[in-house]
Design brief:
about 180 residues; alpha+beta; Beta-Lactamase; Arc Repressor Mutant, subunit A; 2 domains; five-stranded antiparallel β-sheet; transcription regulation; DNA-binding
Length: about 180
């Protein structure tokens, strides 16, 4: 019965060991393209938009604040076809002290709620911190940039997302209705 629940869960599930896919379910394969067997022993890095993004997320999981054994975020992932899409990712490590040893991860395609917009790494950082409610001055201090530079990045984000004001941008970035 447990195998049926895993295989037919309505959300993509994958068991990872040291960031290598050991097993995935039907919905995971449908989300990323192909069949579950196509993912046996695949590096999860192959489903990230860039190696830089893969390393960034890996570094986050090593930070003290994320060593709870659980992690969740919304990020851009890459299908096997190369298409980028927004994905809600949640994971739980079997051993919080070694987050990459073995974990179960869920992947839900949320691209219908959010368009994929090409962002520079700095724009992505500013967007994430903006969604966390930080002011331009607070973001500037955190990134060691002037608040005017942050305002410039925010202006680019407003334009890229077709938002008129900051609350509308945040709504678009988080997928929340206005």
């Amino acid at each position: 019965m447990t195998d049926i629940a895993f295989s037919h869960a309505p959300v993509g599930l994958a068991v990872l060991e040291r960031r290598v896919i050991k097993r995935c379910n039907l919905q995971f394969a449908a989300t990323f393209g192909g069949e579950p067997a196509d993912y046996d022993e695949m590096l999860i890095a192959d489903l990230y938009p860039t190696q830089e993004e893969f390393r960034r997320i890996g570094a986050l999981l090593q930070e003290e604040e994320h060593r709870t054994g659980s992690y969740s975020d919304e990020r851009i992932m890459r299908r096997r076809s190369g298409e980028l899409f927004w994905c809600r990712v949640r994971g739980r490590s079997v051993s919080p002290e070694a987050p990459f040893q073995t974990g179960v991860w869920s992947f839900a395609d949320i691209s219908d709620d959010r368009p994929v917009v090409s962002l520079t790494p700095r724009e992505r950082e500013v967007a994430i911190l903006t969604c966390k409610g930080l002011s331009a001055k607070e973001i500037g201090a955190k990134l060691n940039l002037s608040y005017r530079t942050i305002e410039t990045h925010r202006a680019h984000l407003l334009e890229k997302f077709g938002a008129r004001k900051l609350p509308e941008l945040v709504a678009k970035l988080t997928g929340m209705p206005l």
